[in-house]
Design goal:
By secondary structure, the chain is an alpha+beta fold. The protein is built from seven helices and eleven strands. It is globular, with a radius of gyration of 19 Å.
Length: about 325
């Protein structure tokens, strides 16, 4: 984390933050009464990974999975608020970083805050290091900084949580974060080996099937689906197993250490060649920032390394439980 933050420009320009905030309308795609539904996943065998795309998705293998339960949708702001109100929990972004734990980090990066995506000015050259800025005051209640909030967005996925934050909620629920294998098996929706969770047709071929970036990333966001940023849970059709938003919207934490391929065990800390020495977990599902011309990781087999101590406005999570449940679906 240190190596990343010290390279990131301190940023507080509210005008730019507004440019990447999600739509402010209080849209509800899934009624509040339906929040928290659990889906039973029968165990089985499937193709884990893929050899056709990014190297870190392979080698593909036949893998068996035991039955488990999984949240039908990403954990929402309303659900996380209930946890906070019951426990008084403060997220990492709300607490900030201590000088004792991070003595080499400049003081301006230790204050409460988090990472925010800042799109470049029209058609100006840029790089990923410039798109992400540390913004004081950014947290799950203010995903893009103090100029933003989640009022009227109870059914939007909660974001700006580190791996530990997501894990704390899961444990409070008596559940846990999914392994990468469990997540991918459920996200495939029963379509073994298909490119996407609905088959092999691209997300925007004919009809919009997921909340991803429409347009030329990162300069042009056409927002054809009505959302510049994340969308409420359940705005798109469920996959074959009844899960919502396993494609796009927000990336989802897993509890599996990330490695640049699946050829060997990278230990409990994982390993990412681009950030050596950092504990990394595998994210799954892609987000509203994934586009046809960039990322293309909105496929069940796709994955991405994420520093467990870094939160952002395009990362959320869902939880799982062991075994099959009699919980009403």
């Amino acid at each position: 984390m240190l190596k990343h933050l010290v390279k990131i420009t301190f940023f507080v320009a509210v005008s730019l933050l507004a440019a990447c905030q999600p739509d402010d309308s209080p849209t509800v795609c899934l009624p509040l009464a339906s929040l928290g539904e659990i889906v039973n996943i029968q165990g089985g065998e499937f193709q884990f990974g893929d050899n056709r795309f990014y190297v870190d998705e392979g080698p593909a293998s036949r893998t068996s999975v035991l039955g488990f339960t999984i949240d039908r949708h990403e954990v929402t702001n309303a659900q996380f608020r209930a946890f906070v109100e019951a426990t008084g929990y403060l997220t990492a972004a709300e607490v900030g970083l201590s000088e004792q734990d991070f003595p080499d980090l400049p003081a301006q990066y230790r204050v409460p805050g988090s990472m925010v995506f800042v799109p470049p000015a029209d058609h100006q050259p840029s790089s990923p290091a410039q798109w992400w800025q540390f913004v004081p005051g950014a947290n799950w209640r203010h995903p893009h900084g103090l100029g933003s909030d989640i009022i009227g967005k109870d059914t939007y996925p909660v974001v700006q949580l580190t791996h530990a934050d997501a894990q704390a909620y899961a444990h409070w629920m008596g559940r846990r974060l999914p392994t990468e294998i469990e997540w991918e098996y459920a996200a495939r929706g029963g379509l073994d080996g298909a490119v996407y969770s609905w088959g092999d047709e691209k997300p925007h071929a004919g009809s919009l099937r997921a909340n991803t970036w429409q347009g030329l990333f990162p300069h042009v966001n056409l927002a054809e689906d009505g959302y510049v940023g994340n969308a409420p849970v359940g705005c798109y059709a469920a996959n074959g197993l009844g899960l919502l938003d396993t494609t796009g919207n927000v990336w989802e934490w897993t509890d599996t250490p990330y490695g640049p391929d699946r050829k060997r065990d990278y230990g409990s800390n994982g390993f990412d060649p681009q950030q050596p020495g950092v504990m990394v977990k595998a994210l799954k599902g892609g987000s509203f920032l994934c586009a046809d011309n960039y990322c293309q990781r909105y496929r069940p087999a796709a994955r991405q390394a994420q520093d467990v101590t870094v939160a952002s406005p395009h990362i959320g999570f869902r939880t799982v439980g062991d075994g099959i449940s009699d919980i009403k679906q």
